[in-house]
Design brief:
It is built from six helices and eight strands, in the order βαβββββαβααβαα. By secondary structure, it is an alpha+beta fold. The protein has one domain: Pnp Oxidase, Chain A (Roll). Strands 1, 2, 3, 4, 5, 6, 7 and 8 form an eight-stranded antiparallel sheet that branches.
C-alpha cells in the first residue's frame, strides 16, 4: 500500500482500535486460480513476546479451502470513509483551485494462517467470538445457550483459524495535507451531513487536530 508519510499511522493501539471497531476483514490469499478474497470477522488478542503485533482469531467453513493456505496472507480492515467535496475548502471561495477527494482509514495486516485443532481451544475461540459480538446487546446470546451436542456437531463443519500478525500498517488519509482551518471546517460539514460514516470521519479528523 502506498503511504505518504503524512498519512501513515503507526500507533499500535490506534490500529488495534480500528480492527476492533471494524472487525470484518477482506482476507486476501493467492490460490491456484489467482488472488481470492474471503470476508471474515476477526477478534484481536493482545500482543505477546512471540506476537508483538497481536493475533487475529476467527473461523471459516471447513468446505472453504482458505484454511489450508500456507502462504503469506493479507487482511484489509476498512474503517470510516467519506467523500470530500471541493465546496468545503476555503480555497473554493478564494481561487476555485480545488478538486474532490476521498478520506479513509484502513489497516493492512500480514501473516500466515494456522488452524486451531484442539477441541477445547476451538470452543473457547467460538465463545470469545460470540461474547465479543453479543456484548452490546441487552440480552446477549451465549454459546452455552445452545445444546452442547448441537455446538459440537457444528464444530465438525467449521475450522478455527489464527493469524499471528507479522506486519501491521495503517493509512489515515484524512486531509492532513490541508490547513488546520480547512480540516476543522471539513469536520463540521461532515457532521452536518448527518450520516453515520461521515460522523465517524469527523471524529477522526477532530481527534487528530486535538492531538497536534
Amino acid at each position: 500500500m502506498y503511504i505518504p508519510s503524512h498519512f501513515s499511522e503507526e500507533r499500535l493501539d490506534v490500529l488495534h482500535q480500528l480492527i476492533h471497531d471494524h472487525p470484518l476483514a477482506s482476507l486476501i490469499t493467492m490460490e491456484a486460480e489467482g488472488m481470492t478474497a474471503n470476508h471474515i470477522p476477526f477478534i484481536m488478542t493482545p500482543p505477546t513476546h512471540d506476537a508483538p503485533f497481536g493475533t487475529l482469531r476467527g473461523h471459516v467453513a471447513r468446505a472453504n479451502p482458505v484454511w489450508q493456505n500456507k502462504d503469506p496472507v493479507l487482511l484489509i480492515f476498512q474503517g470510516p470513509s467519506s467523500y470530500i467535496t471541493p465546496s468545503w475548502y476555503e480555497e473554493k471561495k478564494q481561487t476555485g483551485a480545488v478538486v474532490p477527494t476521498y478520506n479513509y482509514a484502513v489497516v493492512h495486516a500480514h501473516g500466515t494462517i494456522a488452524t486451531v485443532d484442539d477441541t477445547t481451544q476451538f470452543l473457547d475461540l467460538l465463545t470469545q467470538l460470540t461474547d465479543r459480538f453479543e456484548s452490546t446487546r441487552g440480552s446477549p446470546w451465549a454459546v452455552a445457550d445452545a445444546p452442547p451436542e448441537y455446538i459440537h456437531n457444528l464444530m465438525e463443519h467449521i475450522v478455527g483459524i489464527e493469524i499471528t500478525i507479522s506486519r501491521l500498517v495503517g493509512k489515515w488519509k484524512t486531509s492532513q495535507n490541508k490547513s488546520a482551518t480547512n480540516r476543522s471546517h471539513i469536520a463540521v460539514q461532515l457532521r452536518d451531513d448527518q450520516q453515520h460514516r461521515n460522523e465517524a470521519m469527523a471524529d477522526i479528523m477532530e481527534r487528530q487536530l486535538f492531538e497536534e
